[in-house]
Amino acid sequence: MDKSKSSEEQLPNKHFIVVLRGPSAVIFHQNKNILIEDFQSKIGPVNMAYTSRWLSRDSNIILPGHLWIEIAGYGPSLKDVLVPFANAGLAMLPILALCTNAAVGEPEIEVGFENTSGVKERDYFQCYVPQETDIIHICRHIKIEQTLSVIRKLATHNESERLRRGANQYRLALDSWRLGRETLALAHLWMAIEAITKAKIRMECSARGLSAPKELADSLGVQPDQLDPTVRKELILKGDNECYSKARKASDGFEHGYLDYSQIIEKAKDVRHRMASYIRLSILEIIGDARAERA
């Protein structure tokens, strides 16, 4: 058997495009986008484009619509690529939310199809996604160059996985940033601080020329088993004792059910804004891109 030919036949040679769409307070200017090339999905490299739909409602009225994500790449079948491509597209949402400091909802797969050149029959998938309303909502334009800088630095950062987890919790907090959902927002912010604590410890050790977390604990005057909460309070939350105390109590009370809901929501209201500001700043500091901090 010709092994080289067999190997070639096993390589995916069908080209597919998957499109996601959904609500977002992150808005691209007209005809502007972010392109991510050769992002490694679960099924292979893909190219991804992020932009905003703009809706013409009159000759002089154009409104921003949903976030639009297009993912293109190769695979064996539409069934095999649909979910891996969509998950790849979702991977950048925490970074868009973090850099813009604006909520990004949950986009859904709207269309998927084979785009292989020369074929006469193509697999096709379509799902109904509700159209945008004409209700004007608060939004924020994305700064493309700053966002691309964060994406590039995060891609090679040795704490990339933890920082992505923290950024995604931050995105979920922003998506709950409305009246009556303060507790959920704070719960996600607390999960974000937990996600980035170890990364902050290692960054601080490196900055201080220390070789181990125990040395950092010694320099902060605490026992090693108290290093995580000390770093959260003193370094990530900048010594804001009230913020740390109320956020921890609200999070623990919500998770374990020992606080009355009215008490939880009051504590969350008191510190939610400060908590979010500290966490966003810390994530961007660890990534090492100060330009995005001013958004």
Computed CA radius of gyration, to the nearest angstrom: 22 Å
Mean pLDDT rating? 91
Strand content bin: 15-25%
Q: Spans of 5+ residues with little confidence (pLDDT < 50)?
A: 1-9
Q: Helical element count?
A: 10
Fraction of residues in H or I helices: 40-55%
Q: Enumerate the strands of the largest sheet in spatial order, edge to edge or round the barrel.
A: 3-4-5-1-6-7
Could you say which structural class the secondary elements and strand pairing correspond to? alpha+beta
Quaternary structure of the protein: single chain
Number of strands: 8
Q: Could you spell the SSE succession in H and E letters?
A: HEEEEEHHEEEHHHHHHH
- How many distinct domains? 2
List the helices and strands and how they pair.
Blueprint: H1 3-10, E1 14-22, E2 26-27, E3 34-41, E4 44-58, E5 61-75, H2 78-90, H3 93-100, E6 108-114, E7 124-126, E8 140-141, H4 144-155, H5 160-175, H6 182-208, H7 213-220, H8 227-236, H9 241-256, H10 261-287
Helix pairs in contact: 3-4, 3-5, 5-6, 5-10, 6-8, 6-9, 6-10, 9-10
Q: What are the key terms here?
A:
10 helices, globular, 295 residues, two-stranded parallel sheet, 2 domains, disordered N terminus, alpha+beta
